[in-house]
Design goal:
- The chain has 128 residues and is an alpha/beta fold.
- The chain has a single domain (9-126), classed as 2,3-Dihydroxybiphenyl 1,2-Dioxygenase, domain 1 (Roll), CATH 3.10.180.
- The chain is 16% helix and 35% strand.
């Protein structure tokens, strides 16, 4: 198979605000960028094995994008995000996976998910 991964492409209202969220908050690294007139207008970001593309432009209201980023340990990421002062929802178990969700400045939801044997609908606070 030639297809190896899904790389979501998000339109963002402010590249500067989005880079602060994704890079400083969530720990993504800028892998590639397009800088017409010296300002980043498009970039490819990487966090572990996940990649995202961001492009500055007009966003559509009420059009929430949700992306599931499969990872080894969503709970560790949850704790890392809290330590970086990122607003993150309390993890819960859904579809046999821990789900830890954040929302970026443009309303796009990112669900960081990892497999677990913990019962469905369990919240982290119930076992931590």
């Amino acid at each position: 198979m030639n297809v190896k991964e899904v790389v979501p492409f998000l339109t963002v209202a402010s590249m500067q605000r989005s880079l602060a969220f994704y890079v400083d908050g969530l720990g993504f690294e800028v892998e590639q960028k397009w800088r017409p007139e010296g300002q980043i207008r498009w970039c490819m970001l990487r966090l572990g094995g996940a990649r995202l593309m961001l492009q500055e432009g007009q966003t559509q209201a009420n059009n929430e994008n949700v992306m599931c980023l499969m990872c080894d340990d969503a709970l560790t990421l949850y704790r890392e995000f809290l330590a970086r002062s990122v607003e993150v929802q309390e993890p819960y178990v859904g579809n046999r996976m821990w789900v830890s969700s954040v929302t970026d400045p443009d309303g796009n939801r990112l669900d960081f998910e990892s497999l677990t044997d913990v019962p469905e609908e369990t919240r982290l606070s119930e076992i931590d």
